[in-house]
Amino acid sequence: MTKRVLIITYYWPPQGGSGVQRWLKFAKYLRDFGWEPVVYTPENPEMMATDHSLLSEIPANTEVIKRKITEPYSIYKLFTGKRETGVKPGFISDGKKSLKEKLSLFLRSNLFIPDPKVLWISPSARFLINYIAQNSIDAIVSTGPPHSMHLIARRVARKCSIPWVADFRDPWTRMYNFKYMGHTLFSRYIHSTMEKKVIRDASALVTVTNTIAAELREIGGGRDVHVITNGYDPQDFEGNDVAPEERFTITYTGLFVDTQNPVLLWKWLGERCKTDIAFSKDLRIRIIGHTDTSILNDVYSNGLENNLVKMDYTPHDQVVRWQRKARVLLLAGGREPESKGILTGKFFEYLAAKRPILGFGPKGGDMDIALEESCSGKMFDYTDISGPANWIEQQYRIYKEGGEPLCTGDNTKYSRRELTSRMAHILDSLTRK
Fold first, then answer.
1. Quick one: 188 and 243 in the same domain?
2. 200 and 253, same structural domain?
3. Which of 169-173, 365-369, 397-401 has the lowest mean pLDDT?
């Protein structure tokens, strides 16, 4: 008999971006394991990007409940004088922040707790409690950030006595950028209290890396945490083989923030181009997605403007194709110690593209370990210049000799369908009579 799971998520097509992929893919395969997804999401979210191609991924006849949300972003635009229609992701900067922008960040961090979606918590909880009274729901899932989704689920689960899975795609108070948000001591206390209540009251906790799982166990006094990583959908990579680009192309896809800027890489590439005309003609740097101005400025200042192809947000199906065409895929994690636990969905798509991966980030972190285990590339510290240089030279020799930049490791354990089977197992264990 098929059971029904209510999925509370802020991110859902036609929204684009990495936050959409995880539960869109779970919903795509849940029926294979006896679960019918019912999605609750905002009708009018502030969109970082729009990707209508993702609508085709939603299983036919899926019930998607959309309700209006009130967010403070329109007030922010009025206050700061911003006129853009899209929302820039956190920490993407067009340059130095104005005093109004700094004040807006302070107000956002200390008035809207845990996040600007907080005004949606009470009306959503009331609506869903009434909905469940009239419709059969066997389990609830909330996915955050934004962590307001967990607070909605907590109220509904407690009122309706329904098992609840809290899925942490990122940490909460231990997120690497949390310390830069300008929280007061009081607001940090509120965040911490809310976080502990979610961890304590959820029927099951799920997260994406072992590092985040260890942090959640510590905060929760040792309670069990399941690790289900992000992954890739083999169907996204089906079809005829895609030949690599003719030029020696280093490709980065997705959100590219200042703390991920491989400054020494741009410097070395710039110097290499100045001393070798052939290398300069061969090199192409393709950056696809929202990118911090500081990163582009570093590329330009190192004389690489003629090597750069900058593309704005691109539909997911096209991004996958560019990943497959790359000679080298550039992967940039955070610099902060807290970044050791970040293992993005993009990483797994890079694996599926089977192109060599040049990674920057904390050594010994989850991404470094997964990269080594998959034999798909190499992770370097941001302060290392000789290691990445030698690695790129090796890939460039392969390119000049006409070789294929392929990685052939077995990554089937990261397929979205396999990962969904593990999520379904957790739901089954919570609802077993």
1. no
2. no
3. 365-369
Q: Which residues contact 165 (CB under 8 A, 6 or more apart)?
A: 139, 140, 141, 142, 202, 203, 204, 205, 206, 426, 427, 430
- pTM here? 0.82
Per-residue HEC secondary structure of 401-428 comes to CCCCCCCCCCCHHHEHHHHHHHHHHHHH
Domain co-membership, 159 together with 119: yes
Q: Report residue 41 CA to chain centroid gap.
A: 18
> Phi/psi of residue 303, each to 5°?
75, 25
Residue 140 DSSP SS3? strand
Domain count across the chain: 2
Task: Give the range of the structural domain holding residue 377, as residue numbers without chain letter.
Answer: 234-412
**Whole-angstrom distance, CA of residue 235 vs CA of residue 229:** 18
pLDDT tens digits for range 266-297 = 999 999 999 999 999 999 999 999 999 999 99
Q: What is the DSSP letter of 116?
A: T
Are 184 and 239 within one domain? no
HSE-up of residue 84 (Cα within 13 Å, Cβ side): 10
320-361 pLDDT, tens per residue?
A: 999 999 999 999 988 877 778 777 788 999 999 999 999 999
- 197 and 256 housed in the same domain: no
| CATH number where 145 lies | 3.40.50.2000
The mean predicted confidence, pLDDT, of the chain is 90
